Amino acid sequence: MARRKKVYEGKAKILYEGPEPGTFVQYFKDDATAFNAQKKDIIDGKGVLNNRLSEYFMTGLAQIGVPTHFLKRLNMREQLIRQVEIIPLEVIVRNYAAGTMSERLGLEEGTQLPRPIVEFCLKDDNLGDPLVSEEHIIAFGWAAQQDLDDMIALALRVNDFMSGCMFGVGIRLVDFKIEIGRVWEGDFQRLIIADEISPDSCRLWDMETGEKLDKDVFRRDLGDLADAYTEVARRLGVLPSNVTHATKPTLIN
Ligand code: TYD
Question: Is the full-model pTM beyond 0.90?
Answer without folding.
Answer: yes
